[in-house]
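ok new one. same drill as before - structure tokens go in, u give me an amino acid for every spot. 393 of them this time. try not to just spam alanines like last time pls lmao
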């Protein structure tokens, strides 16, 4: 049994413009000690999915369908007492804006101690010692001083670390981090990601990382799920996602990652913008932005299928690699013709000319989906065809 199992989760918001289905039939699972990423653009539903885990969706939002099980227990069926115990002791969340999570009128130490007291973890001197130890564990240079600091006295990176220390104070098995590195400079980002990886190993804590940044995913995650317009479009171990992206949206996101030594004048971007979730496109939700779209894409909704079998992912089964594109059920006539090039840190292309998996010898940090387009095979529409990487399988 996985630590966390989410099955067919569906979350709606009732707005003046209509019903927004922010998360639509979303399923995944996280094992103990695993670092799992949910990736997508703003508005994809990543944060709503995370808030749902702790039942933090408020009106006009509502979880309308699905199941959330934590160690086999039905989270959506918890009483208020069970829910209070679950939040903090079993699962904790840290948002991207630490200033909003820290109360400006209490010191950092008081806030960590209060969290532990409220969850019957520790009080008095024991709580103080544990708080300082946690601040040290998240690599705050002077934890004793940070303990007595007010939030406004901390830098952005330190405040984010203090929030993570607070979230860890009740020793949860699952830590949900919503865009933890947004707004931090790249050096601090790298340090924080190293700290998170270290924490996950030391405490055997599972991490659900919500991010729009695939670079962050490459640095510290085991598996990832790519989300588009409320749905999962691809899920895979991180190395496979980078070396062999199987959905055009994932390939587009990878092609847009900047890298050292990048010779491109402009970074390619996924053309267009995410759909209005009140009126989602028919068929494949990505079809208005997809350079490989065919008629079938506008009428038939592609299911998430296992690449190995081409069959829908069964309930409760963890697929190695799954994707929601008609290519993988044999319904796309033209196919996906981008290719993935593996480029090392010096800019050398080390992709084996056979294009076969396993020919890649460089580390994950060197992976990228190249932004070049094959003129012979690119779609005619320059609006959608010019910005995607090549693919050949
Ligand atoms: S189903 Fe069609 S529109 Fe959707 S990603 Fe695949 S090719 Fe593109």
């Amino acid at each position: 049994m996985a630590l966390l199992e989410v099955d067919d989760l569906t979350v709606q918001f009732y707005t003046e413009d209509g019903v927004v289905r922010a998360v639509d039939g979303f399923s995944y699972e996280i094992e103990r000690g695993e670092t799992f990423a949910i990736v997508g653009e703003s508005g994809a539903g990543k944060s709503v999915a995370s808030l749902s885990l702790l039942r933090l969706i408020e009106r006009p939002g509502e979880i309308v369908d699905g199941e959330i099980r934590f160690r086999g227990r039905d989270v959506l069926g918890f009483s208020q007492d069970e829910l209070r115990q679950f939040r903090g002791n079993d699962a904790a969340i840290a948002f991207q804006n630490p200033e909003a999570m820290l109360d400006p009128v209490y010191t950092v130490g008081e806030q960590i101690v209060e969290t532990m007291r409220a969850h019957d973890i520790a009080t008095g001197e024991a709580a103080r010692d544990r708080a300082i130890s946690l601040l040290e564990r998240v690599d705050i240079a002077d934890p004793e001083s940070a303990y007595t600091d007010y939030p406004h006295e901390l830098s952005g990176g330190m405040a984010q670390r203090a929030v993570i220390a607070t979230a860890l104070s009740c020793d949860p098995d699952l830590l949900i981090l919503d865009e933890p590195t947004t707004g931090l400079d790249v050096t601090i980002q790298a340090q924080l990601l190293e700290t998170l990886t270290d924490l996950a190993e030391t405490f055997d804590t599972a991490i659900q990382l919500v991010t729009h940044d695939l670079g962050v995913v490459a640095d510290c995650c085991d598996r990832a799920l790519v989300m588009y317009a409320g749905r999962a479009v691809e899920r895979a171990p991180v190395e496979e996602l980078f070396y062999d992206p199987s959905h055009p949206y994932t390939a587009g996101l990878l092609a847009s990652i900047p890298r050292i030594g990048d010779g491109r004048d402009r970074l390619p971007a996924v053309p267009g913008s995410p759909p209005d979730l009140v009126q989602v496109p028919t068929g494949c939700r990505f079809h208005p932005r997809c350079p490989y779209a065919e008629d079938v894409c506008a009428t038939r909704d592609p299911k998430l299928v296992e690449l190995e079998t081409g069959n829908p992912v069964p309930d409760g089964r963890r697929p190695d690699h799954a994707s929601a594109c008609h290519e993988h059920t044999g319904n796309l006539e033209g196919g996906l013709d981008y290719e993935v090039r593996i480029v090392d840190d010096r800019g050398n292309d080390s992709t084996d000319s056979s294009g076969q998996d396993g020919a890649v010898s460089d580390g994950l940090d060197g992976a990228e989906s190249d932004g070049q387009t094959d003129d012979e095979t690119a779609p005619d529409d320059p609006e959608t065809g010019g910005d995607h990487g090549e693919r050949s399988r």
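Residues 353-393 have pLDDT under 50 and may be disordered. and btw Residues 186-203 form the longest helix (18 residues).
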